[in-house]
């Protein structure tokens, strides 16, 4: 578990750096995908899913 959290934090930091630099290359995309897979395996996944679903419902309910 400690290794997973360390790798997860490293990937979060790398993803933020890549997105801030504005140069998202193939290697950066692979890091982002790995981050997604690691986040899906944590206990945070259901909370993130509910938050994203709530945001999507809110956005879909807005009428222009």
Write the layout of secondary structure elements.
Elements: H1 2-21, H2 26-40, H3 45-60
Structure description:
The protein has one domain. It is mainly α and 64 residues long. The termini are far apart. It has helices at 2-21, 26-40, 45-60. This is DUF2304 domain-containing protein. Keywords: Membrane, Transmembrane, Transmembrane helix. It comes from Streptomyces lycii.
Notable characteristics:
DUF2304 domain-containing protein, mainly alpha, transmembrane helix, single chain, 80% helix
| Separation of the first and last Cα atoms | 46 Å
Structural class: mainly alpha
- Count every beta strand, where a strand is a DSSP E run of 2 or more residues: 0
Oligomeric nature of the chains: single chain
Which residue ranges are poorly predicted, with pLDDT under 50 across at least 5 consecutive positions?
none
What sort of overall outline do the alpha carbons produce when their principal axes are compared? flat
Evaluate the radius of gyration.
15 Å
- Helix-strand string: HHH
What's the mean pLDDT score? 78
DSSP helix fraction = over 70%
Number of spatially distinct domains: 1
Major sheet description: none
Count of individual helical segments: 3
Share of β-strand residues:
under 5%
Question: In a nutshell, what does this entry contain?
Answer:
The chain is mainly α.
């Amino acid at each position: 578990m400690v290794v997973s959290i360390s790798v997860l934090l490293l990937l979060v930091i790398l993803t933020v750096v890549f997105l801030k630099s504005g140069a998202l290359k193939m290697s950066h995309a692979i890091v982002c995908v790995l981050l997604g897979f690691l986040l899906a395996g944590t206990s945070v996944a259901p909370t993130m899913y509910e938050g994203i679903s709530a945001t999507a419902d809110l956005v879909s309910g807005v009428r222009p």
